[in-house]
Amino acid sequence: MDVQVYRVPMQRLIQGNGMPQESDHGVAIVGMGIVCSIGDNIVEFKESLKKGVSGITRLADRKGPKLSVDIGAEIKAFSFLDRLYRYSDIPETLLQKARHCAQRSPFAIQASVLSALEAWQDSGMVARENDPERLGVIVAGESTTQNYRYGLHAGFETDPEYLSPRYALQFLDTHQVGVLSEILTIKGEGFVVGGASASGNVGIIKAVQLIQAGIVDTCLVAGVVADLSPIELQGFVNVGAMVRGNEFQTPEQASRPFDEQHAGFVFGQASACVILQSCDVATERNATVRSTILGAAMNLDAVSTTAPSASGEARAMNEALRRGGVCASGVDYLNAHGSSSPLGDATEVEAIKQVFGDHVSKLRVNSTKGLTGHCLYSAGVVELIASVLQMEGEFIHPNKNLENPIDHKLRFSGARFEKARIALAMSNSFGFGGINSSIVFQNAC
């Protein structure tokens, strides 16, 4: 189909006079990496998406009291060193650096290192000399060492001296920035962003802004795996957001985005990374561009509760379209937030109708959370990667467990993957505290 795309000049500050200069240069996605419940890498993840594989099972080896939830999409059989040395095309010196920096680190950091290395390799940055001051890193996710800290509590009560000196660094979210920047020799800007369930999208949006402003040429965005302790798991149940373990006969039936039987989100784990780069730089170094981000936006509802807002979500989608110079009728596919929460799903459907109007009958919609569960901090990065893979592979992955849609006007994908050409896509992420975000992207630079 012909995509209606209108170039909207991007603004960036020029050093010296501080005045904005118009630029129409885009931001390219040149590398992707993932470790999750349905794939240890991008290739495995893509195949699982096509087949509609669910990663949701009974939670294994969880210490602590019996909880109201016992299901989730966990990363299973995790071994940092085993997975590290699967990267045969990465120089030994870089692998040794990664081992030195992360071998004794918490699980969340080790998972970030693995997905970052895959994305770095995929981008071709491994095989070239890079100016470290033109590289940036953004870590998407806050309070990422919850289960690590929980596991240390019993030993600390017995003997406080038991605590490792490394703990002073490792409980800080900024340690992720330090580890990734040391391994990949990144000396530009680096920081942590939070946005609850929208953290991944917030990280991507901030990276786009850094590149558009000319502060960096290339930025790694690391969506951090959610390693929740029993306290956080029970907290999500108590607030009414997470599905209880006994709601369904089998765990893989529990995540049901946009289905009449949706009962709350299912906890998912994934570490996901993307490498974003100025299209100018990507062209100059002849990089393989996997997709181009046209527009991205986020806003707040000015609330501190869990309640979503259709008007806020619609504002984010409309602003992303406006910044990308794209008509709503030109969008082929939407990777919805679709958490499987009754209120959240219904609110998003209302927002989609507000934005897309009559086009909802043609707009293909699915939710990756039906397969991966809700990966929380990394969800936005996971779902951007899933969208790009579908765009490249010309398919739409199944909406697993969508048997009785809550709305029959939207064109939800079915129980099996469908062949489809996607020229222009959108991905939504919404978070507690009224954080709304949306990203629009296409399949060429």
Secondary structure topology:
Blueprint: E1 10-13, E2 20-23, E3 27-36, H1 42-51, E4 57-58, E5 71-72, H2 80-84, H3 92-102, H4 107-123, E6 135-140, H5 146-158, H6 167-170, H7 174-184, E7 190-193, H8 199-212, E8 218-223, H9 230-238, E9 270-278, H10 279-284, E10 291-300, H11 310-324, E11 333-335, H12 342-356, E12 364-366, H13 369-372, H14 379-393, E13 395-396, E14 411-412, E15 418-419, E16 424-431, E17 435-442
Parallel strand pairs: 6-7, 6-8, 11-12, 11-16, 12-14
Antiparallel strand pairs: 1-2, 3-9, 3-10, 4-5, 8-9, 10-17, 13-15, 16-17
Task: Using the 3D structure, state the CATH architecture of the largest domain.
Answer: 3-Layer(aba) Sandwich
* Main pleated-sheet profile: 11 strands, mixed
Structural class of the helices, strands and pairings?
alpha/beta
What is the first-to-last residue Cα distance? Answer: 18 Å
Helical content class = 25-40%
User: Count of helical segments?
Assistant: 14
How many E-type strands? 17
Oligomeric state of shown chains: single chain
What would CATH call the class of the largest domain?
A: Alpha Beta
Q: Would you identify the CATH H-level superfamily of the largest domain?
A: Thiolase/Chalcone synthase
CATH topology of the largest domain: Peroxisomal Thiolase, Chain A, domain 1
Q: What would you report as the Rg, rounded to the nearest angstrom?
A: 21 Å
How confident is the prediction overall: mean pLDDT? 92
Whole-number count of domains: 2
Q: Widest sheet: strand order?
A: 7-6-8-9-3-10-17-16-11-12-14
**Unreliable spans:** 1-24
Proportion of beta-strand residues: 15-25%
The best one-word shape is globular
